[in-house]
């Protein structure tokens, strides 16, 4: 088990340092098990960060199917994803995935996902999900029945967006990151998992940051489309590695890896 490492650059008041809420004792919790596949493991047989993102995406769809809301709520955009790797998950293993609402408003919600492995691994996550009208590409109101079901696990019914990562793009040389047609989703945007491919590539050498519990944050500011030229800028401090996803010097997303504060 890894020891938790304090990060003196974060204060408890900053939301990016706030621990994720625990599993509630009651209310609607989607609870499934699935086998960890080899496609999601790295060369050391750890669950990769982009593999974690795929499990989050699949769990979201499965959850909608489970509650009969896929037809009424098929289109969502993720504005932010937080992934806390508290104990790494190794292959082979069976995963238990629990998903519930931790905050909600009439057009968006935060969804917590806890991933436990039967070999002792633990990953805690939270995503800020916006319900979309695909025709107008604008946030769309949640159905009353769906809203009421999600409210059973949270008292926060007036959820508001607050950006966590807003540092300006550094004036440092960038690295070109190629995009593929297979990275495109039904919105004609680069899919969420493709961003995590880049996060995995650019953080793989920051081994000191992942020796203990660590947190990934990824905030999507504007969509990236296939055919655009994507550059990634990086900046390293003793306690964090930050990535800027840039198209023609326009920041489309920001990701950060840092130790989990005690």
CATH fold topology:
Thiol Ester Dehydrase, Chain A
Radius of gyration: 18 Å
CATH superfamily: Hotdog Thioesterase
Secondary-structure element order, N to C? EHEEEEEHEHEEEE
> Averaging pLDDT over every residue, what do you get?
93
Estimate the helix proportion, in percent.
10-25%
Describe this structure in words.
This protein has helices at residues 49-66, 144-150, 192-203, and strands at residues 30-35, 76-87, 94-104, 108-117, 122-133, 138-139, 175-176, 214-220, 231-237, 240-247, 250-259. It is an alpha+beta fold. It has one domain: Thiol Ester Dehydrase, Chain A. Strands 1, 2, 3, 4, 5, 6, 7, 8, 9, 10 and 11 form an eleven-stranded antiparallel beta sheet that branches. Strand 5 and strand 6 form a beta hairpin. It is globular. 32% of the residues are buried. The model is unreliable at 1-11 (pLDDT under 50).
Task: Give a brief outline of the structure.
By secondary structure, the protein is α+β, with helices and mostly antiparallel strands.
Spell out the key features of this protein:
single chain; 262 residues; alpha+beta; Thiol Ester Dehydrase, Chain A; eleven-stranded antiparallel beta sheet; 3 helices; 14% helix; disordered N terminus
Tell me the layout of helices and strands.
Layout: E1 30-35, H1 49-66, E2 76-87, E3 94-104, E4 108-117, E5 122-133, E6 138-139, H2 144-150, E7 175-176, H3 192-203, E8 214-220, E9 231-237, E10 240-247, E11 250-259
Antiparallel strand pairs: 1-3, 2-5, 2-8, 3-4, 4-5, 5-6, 7-9, 8-11, 9-10, 10-11
Helix pairs in contact: 1-3
